[in-house]
Design brief:
With 426 residues, the protein is of the alpha/beta class. It has 18 helices and seven strands. β2, α1 and β3 form a beta-alpha-beta unit. The two termini are 38 Å apart. The relative contact order is 0.14.
């Protein structure tokens, strides 16, 4: 018998029955291109799309190898896995690449929804400077290398064509398709036209500084259930002294001039985000409050120790169907994006392996057990990048194990258990 606890929605979040969610009259959008930009909170958004598509067996445009294989040279034939069903377009793109609308729509569809995310440029610079160890790469000695960099960014910046994520000059613009060759002679007219182009071609540009608001707009745009946008923050790091560094107006202006396109993008899409919010209707604030309550509830429950965990029932609202926060739900919430990528790649390979389609699944045996065909093809990578529990949960999801199999019954833990540990939450 299932044991669970009830979580009633707080009274101040209860919505009048006269307010009806659009999700009750629209169909969830499953055709999405997320242009993942570096150091903007994009790994968290990517994991949301990975989880949504994985649980619905949607097809992903996937790199053949590492997570960054489609970057910075874009999507090339030999760089991505073929579609699981020959001739059928992909559903979702969510891994690093450079925006190329024509190439992406050819592989997904002409009606694909385009989404990306931006971040305040100076905050993004601090993140990149810390994460990529740019003081070492630029050979800047001393206790305050970022301050020295900002005194004359052009002196240290080099045109990096292979590892463009190390670039600090208009990195977001480059990833959104601004021509690298035009970067050295940018005019105001070029900046204005590029910002207008991105504004015209993208359905939503999220803003990291207003992440919750951006996610609520994303949910509405895609007609998703609110549980689909719940998340843990990934790749979120503390910068130590660097995070608290303040800059003089002169240094800020130096960087604003150095990265003028990124500043124009950020300021434009910050304005358009709030314009969308102001037009979103009177219930937007209520929906945002409910989302934040649900986020806190999910994080609290999914962070409990295994011996203090039982399923929680979440009631139906205007924005979500009823559901349980149980051990399986928490496992999917906490799987790291590189594990999701590996499981998606493995699913793609298994679906295209004709020998596996006709092979009868049998109980694990031998020294390899579950880490062998027909259960996986990328078995070594899965063993390395996913926990055993995450992998077994995946096998149940795929139907490769069923509850009444004696082999899988042995894998059932009497203590509630859920998946991997996310990066520290800041």
């Amino acid at each position: 018998m299932r044991v669970f606890r009830l979580y009633d929605v707080p009274p101040y979040l209860r919505v009048s029955s006269s307010i009806k969610s659009k999700s009750s009259v629209c169909q969830p959008n499953t055709n999405i291109a997320f242009i993942k930009t570096h150091k903007t909170g994009s790994s968290t958004v990517m994991q949301i799309f990975q989880r949504f598509g994985f649980l619905r067996n949607l097809s992903f445009l996937l790199p053949k190898g590492s997570i960054n294989q489609l970057y910075p040279f874009g999507i090339r034939d030999r760089m991505y896995l073929p579609a699981p069903i020959e001739g059928r377009p992909f559903d979702i793109l969510t891994h690093h690449t450079v925006y190329d609308r024509a190439g992406i729509t050819q592989l997904l569809s002409a009606n694909v929804t385009f989404v990306t995310i931006v971040r305040e440029p100076m905050e993004r610079l601090k993140s990149a400077f810390n994460f990529y160890k740019l003081a070492w790469r630029y050979k800047i000695p001393g206790p305050d290398p970022l301050l020295r960099f900002l005194e004359n960014p052009g002196k240290f910046e080099h045109h990096i064509t292979r590892n463009r994520d190390y670039e600090t000059k208009n990195n977001i613009a480059l990833e959104l398709g601004f021509p690298l060759k035009s970067l050295s002679s940018v005019k105001e007219k070029d900046i204005r036209e590029f910002v207008e182009k991105i504004s015209r071609e993208f359905d939503l540009v999220m803003v990291l500084e207003y992440f919750d608001e951006s996610l609520v707009l994303l949910r509405r745009l895609l007609c998703w259930d609110m549980r689909d946008i719940l998340n843990f923050k990934y790749n979120s790091f503390q910068y130590g002294k660097l995070g608290n560094t303040s800059f003089s107006e002169k240094l800020i202006q130096n960087y604003r001039q150095h990265s003028a396109i990124d500043y124009a993008l950020y300021e434009h899409f910050n304005r358009t985000l709030w314009s969308k919010i102001n037009k979103a209707g009177s219930d937007f604030r209520e929906e945002l409050a409910h989302f934040r309550w649900l986020q806190t509830t999910m994080k609290t429950e999914c962070s409990r120790k295994f011996d203090n965990f039982s399923a929680v029932y979440i009631g139906k609202t205007a924005w979500n169907a009823e559901f349980y926060i149980d051990s399986t739900f928490c496992t999917w919430m906490k799987i790291f994006h590189v594990c999701y990528l590996t499981l998606l790649q493995d699913r793609n390979l298994r679906h295209r392996d004709k020998s596996l389609r006709i092979q009868q699944y049998r109980q694990p045996s031998g020294s390899c057990g579950l880490y062998s065909k027909p259960y996986c093809i990328l078995c070594t990578q899965i063993r390395k990048l996913c926990t055993h529990h995450e992998y077994v949960t995946h096998l149940y999801q795929e139907g490769l194990l069923v509850p009444d199999q004696s082999s899988s019954a042995k894998l059932t833990n009497p203590v509630p258990h859920h998946g991997g540990k996310p990066e520290p939450i800041s």
